[in-house]
Amino acid sequence: MTAPDAAELRRRTRELLAAHPPATTDRTDFLKARFDAGLAWVHYPAGLGGLDAPRSLQPVVDAELTAADAPDNDPRRIGIGLGMAAPTVLGYGTDEQKKRFLRPLWVGDEVWCQLFSEPGAGSDLAALGTRAVRDGEDWVVDGQKVWTSSAHVARWAILIARTDPDAPKHRGISYFICDMTDPGVEVRPLRQITGEAEFNEVFLTGVRIPDSHRLGPVGEGWKVAQTTLMNERVSIGGSRIPREGGMIGPVAATWRERPELRTHDLHQRLLTLWVEAEVARLTGTRLRQQLVAGQPGPEGSGMKLAFARLNQEISGLEVELLGDEGLLYGDWTMHRPELVDFTGRDAGYRYLRSKGNSIEGGTSEVLLNIVAERVLGLPAEPRNDKDVAWKDLSR
């Protein structure tokens, strides 16, 4: 069957809108109808929310829906599912797993989180110690995960655990889908410097995961996890934003609206950061265009690096521009938000929240190594633990 072109996608979108008018159709019902029509992510296979169309044609559908004021699926609330879980399930899941998980994930009926980082592994994710032991048709999982966004509202989690401690650290890991409502899963809030608890720590005690919820072969979870991580970095650093979107928008608005705050030095710094933010935005556009031809590569790590550095420098400039006002903080109430918000609230929040940008989604130090080795082709750092069994590593 020939992949639909732009004209065909417009026709299908208008048929969807005629059959399910956004003004009179329940939001969830509309989103389910959109998924079933193959207009959720058009590059996915037919029957899984797509039409096997080029990824570059998704904006054609989105423009028609936006013009009709159709509801979206609140992507910020389900970003981990959309940006990390979905491409991994698509790449490594069985037909049954794809049919079970992708539709409720995209519609937003089920929120996902990511159980990767651990307190004992630090930035060396492959050194993780959470164990999964086979018991009949199940795996019994014990361990602890940390820095888990949205765990307190998630139904499902993508989880990596060690299934063979006798293998080297990268080769003894398997990848699972964990039901966050199962017995033995305990979620505790981690209060951040912002005052809220967007992150969590998750304790897994005797959690039973059926083997049917394993993604990829046993022992090859690191390979599967690379798909997740590459997509994560693209979704964080290369997201689609308009000019002056993201962190540069509020500080540019303040500059225009508050001439009494301006100085020559601040003007020069703002111009420099504005240009860098625009270059990063356009580079993100080019990166998304490259995705049309295949899976995300290490270039996403470069975008994530730029995202973290720019957010921290721009938010610092905003606080300095505001002077005494920049020292104010609007709300220190402890609460557990349902979505990750990098740019919301006030200048003080943006300044503090941006400090986590160089840690989450891969620390900047690790990403610098990835860019050096996989993009620039520089020699790899010496590693003396590559062929050592995980159980024999010093910890």
Give structural notes:
The termini are far apart. 38% of the residues are buried. With 395 residues, the chain is an alpha+beta fold. It has helices spanning 6-19, 27-36, 58-67, 79-92, 95-107, 221-237, 248-257, 264-291, 299-322, 347-353, 364-375, and strands at 112-115, 131-135, 138-145, 156-162, 173-179, 185-190, 199-210, 214-215. The protein is built from 11 helices and 8 strands. Strands 1-4-5-8 form a 4-stranded mixed β-sheet. The model has no long low-confidence stretch (mean pLDDT 92).
Which helices and strands occur, and which strands form pairs?
Elements: H1 6-19, H2 27-36, H3 58-67, H4 79-92, H5 95-107, E1 112-115, E2 131-135, E3 138-145, E4 156-162, E5 173-179, E6 185-190, E7 199-210, E8 214-215, H6 221-237, H7 248-257, H8 264-291, H9 299-322, H10 347-353, H11 364-375
Parallel strand pairs: 1-4
Antiparallel strand pairs: 2-3, 3-7, 4-5, 5-8, 6-7
Helical content, roughly? 40-55%
> Major sheet: size, sense and barrel closure?
4 strands, mixed
H/E element sequence: HHHHHEEEEEEEEHHHHHH
The first-to-last residue Cα distance is 55 Å
Query: What global shape is seen?
Result: globular
What's the total helix number? 11
Provide the residue-averaged pLDDT.
92
Beta content = 5-15%
Q: Which class best fits the helix and strand makeup?
A: alpha+beta
Identify low-pLDDT runs: none
